[in-house]
TrEMBL record:
Origin organism lineage: Bacteria, Bacillati, Actinomycetota, Actinomycetes, Propionibacteriales
Protein name per Swiss-Prot or TrEMBL: DNA 5'-3' helicase
Cofactor(s) this protein cannot do without: [4Fe-4S] cluster
EC number: 5.6.2.3
PANTHER family, per the entry: DNA REPAIR DEAD HELICASE RAD3/XP-D SUBFAMILY MEMBER, REGULATOR OF TELOMERE ELONGATION HELICASE 1
Length: 664
């Protein structure tokens, strides 16, 4: 297409000017990715592009997005990347492009879910209590923090600030809920006396005027997949951190219900409903409590009859309660207490209706309350069995999508991850192929632009083949001995990635006892930013933790020269959703273990191993203490998902390498 031919040189020109202005170094992988993204956007063809750490992928998709004919949405999984884009990458790019190509539209905006912004109505009118009465300031120690948040929000409104949670004074989730609302509790701009000042409305207005809109996976899922309009019209989306997308879409489509939710909705309704409908809803909650206490924790292949009946009872009582609310014109517009009380009943009804339907497309399970105590804090959860179908129908057939991450090729192939997005391996095409939506196919292309790192020279993959397989009881004596020997050789400088909090704490305790001259930190002992700061500040330090460290920690330099992974991170056998998805794949004649468990493990392994090499000068060892990576049939698939490091099973070789690094 002529547009494509014209766009590609323009992309290279603008990218080059931007990199030069930013004092960076243009990389071949970055140029290849930028041109592939431009081709995908102009040709309405989906693209999966794996770009290793250090490629500069943010610029590689932002430049073609700025040059695209229409608005492009950029969706991230983590707040850290969203901050990086909004606070650093985009402003610097805009400044560079404005100087070299002043005709390019560089307008941009950020959109988050409603609860991420302070609500001026809630701040000025108060928060409904359990009976729906507006309370100006909560009592006790929380009141002081809420007053501080309110003062901050008023200053934001006066100064034209964004009112975003990330810019607020330090606070807890509970405190933030006192100054924010979800979409159910919002009065709407037309009814709210502060609608013109509303931080959310201002952000949306800015987004309507912008070429690039930065948002998150969850908001994208609500807009594109659930059909709730949250983002201005767009025809293309770039999904960064795409390895997280399926989990975030699933999370956005998951609902929960507890007896406390039902009770709260009933109590709030009593002020607004004249009949017995609110009391009937409370009675239905009592029946649900009995049924939940009698049911076993975990996933339901067959929902117990008593629980099914109780859900129907709650559904019908909530429906009746909703119908009993007086019409809006009778109760007066802008009644926040009424709006939020009715919203809580609507939530109960919608969730109970979904759970009572017992759809084969959903998974239903029961979890205990905090501390595993069966109580009114037990919760029912319902989640989609799979999301690839809705992603294909609602996103991929409507928009052009670019998926990017450092981890998209598993087992050396894009197919396993593409399938989870709703793309079929048989639909993969080469560069320049024509759009095939008219015949029902969804063509896509996979591209690996490599990495600026020389993994074969910078990193060693150590497979501890001699160790016994990991047991159900956590780390064994031989694994603990191995950890101590490796940490001792590295003189600290160790990031330990563990499959459970218990394993991380056990390893930390043993290392503290046997290597007291080193500093050993365990996740949970302080906030993660504080732990990371300590880890970076002293090379003779170890940091042991679980999932958030596997993906969310960036520690370049000699602070981290050893990454220990205690076992292959398969999902827990009793994970309700993962086990249901594996079972469904088996029943459909596919390999549920490889499709679900091995794919999940490969993604996490690749992310965990990726913590080691963050710059072109980093060196070190990734030590996997699970011998199954060497001995099991699926080991080849998992190893092919990891960076191409030099591999050994010899512990003596690894210890010598670590000692040399520590002494250099």
């Amino acid at each position: 297409m002529p547009e494509q031919t014209a766009a590609r040189p323009a992309v290279a020109d603008v990218l080059g000017a931007a990199v030069t202005a930013l004092g960076g170094q243009q990389r071949d992988g970055q140029v290849a990715m930028a041109e592939a993204v431009a081709e995908a956007l102009e040709g309405d063809q989906h693209l999966l592009v794996q770009a290793g750490t250090g490629t500069g992928k943010s610029l590689a998709y932002l430049v073609p997005s700025l040059l695209h004919r229409d608005r492009v949405v950029v969706a991230t999984a983590t707040l850290a990347l969203q901050h990086q884009l909004v606070e650093r990458d985009i402003p610097r790019l805009v400044e560079a492009v404005s100087q070299s190509h002043p005709d390019v539209d560089t307008s941009h905006a950020v959109l988050k879910g409603r609860s991420n912004y302070a609500c001026l109505h809630r701040i000025r009118a108060g928060v409904p209590d359990d009976q729906g009465t507006l309370v100006e300031v909560p009592e006790g120690s929380m009141g002081k923090k809420v007053l501080e948040l309110r003062q901050w929000a008023e200053q934001e409104a006066e100064s034209g600030g964004t009112g975003e949670r990330d810019a607020a004074p330090r606070h807890t989730d509970r405190e933030w809920r006192q100054v924010s609302v979800g979409h159910r509790d919002c009065l709407g701009a037309s009814k709210c006396p502060f609608g013109q000042e509303c931080f959310v409305e201002v952000a949306r207005e800015q987004a309507h005027k912008s070429k690039i809109v930065v948002t998150n996976h969850s908001l994208l899922a609500i807009d594109a997949i659930e059909g709730v309009p949250m983002i201005p019209d767009y025809d293309a989306v770039v999904i960064d951190e795409a390895h997280e997308l399926v989990a975030r879409v699933t999370q956005a489509a998951t609902d929960e219900l507890s007896v406390a939710d039902v009770d709260r909705a009933a109590r709030r309704s009593q002020r607004h409903v004249e009949g017995t409908e609110a009391d009937d809803l409370a009675d239905a909650g009592d029946a649900l409590q009995v049924a939940m206490l009698e049911a076993d924790q975990g996933r339901f292949d067959l929902v117990p009859e008593a629980l099914s009946d109780a859900l129907v009872l709650v559904r019908d009582a909530a429906r009746a309660c909703l119908s009993a609310y007086p019409k809006e014109k009778e109760s007066g517009e802008g009644d926040a207490g009424r709006q939020q009380a009715k919203g809580s009943v609507q939530d109960v009804f919608t969730t109970a209706e979904r759970m009572a339907a017992n759809s084969q497309h959903d998974v239903l399970w029961l979890s205990d309350g905090p501390g595993g105590q069966p109580s009114t804090q037990r919760r029912l959860h319902v989640a989609p069995l799979q999301v690839w179908g809705t992603m294909r129908d609602k996103l991929l057939t409507e928009k052009t999508v670019v998926f990017t991450s450092a981890t998209l090729r598993l087992g050396g192939d894009f197919g396993p991850v593409a399938t989870t997005f709703g793309l079929k391996p048989a639909e993969e095409v080469g560069p320049g192929a024509e759009d095939g939506h008219d015949d029902g196919t969804v063509p896509w292309r996979g591209l690996d632009v490599g990495s600026p790192f020389d993994y074969g020279k910078q990193g060693i993959l150590y497979l501890a083949r001699h160790l016994p397989p990991p047991g159900r009881d956590g780390l064994g004596e031989k694994q603990l001995d191995e950890i101590v020997e490796l940490v001792d050789a590295a003189e600290g400088r160790t990031l330990g990635l563990f499959s459970s909090r218990r394993a991380a704490e056990a390893a930390a305790e043993v290392v503290r006892q046997r290597l007291p001259h080193l500093t050993t930190l365990a996740q949970g002992e302080a906030q993660l930013p504080e732990l990371a700061k300590q880890f970076v500040g002293d090379p003779h330090t170890c940091l042991f933790g679980t999932l958030s460290l596997w993906q969310g920690l960036d520690v370049p330099g000699d602070t981290c020269q050893l990454v220990i992974i205690d076992r292959i991170p398969f999902p827990r056998p009793d994970d309700p959703l993962m086990s249901a998805r594996a079972k469904a794949a088996d029943q459909a004649g596919r390999n549920g273990f490889m499709e679900v468990s091995a794919t999940h493990a490969a993604l996490l392994l690749a992310q965990g191993a990726g913590r080691l090499i963050r710059t072109t000068t980093d060196k070190g060892v990734v030590a996997v203490l699970d011998p199954r990576l060497s001995t099991a049939r699926y080991g080849g698939f998992l190893k092919a998902s990891l960076p191409p490091m030099w591999t050994t099973t010899d512990p003596a070789v690894v210890r010598q390498a670590l000692k040399r690094l520590a002494g250099s």
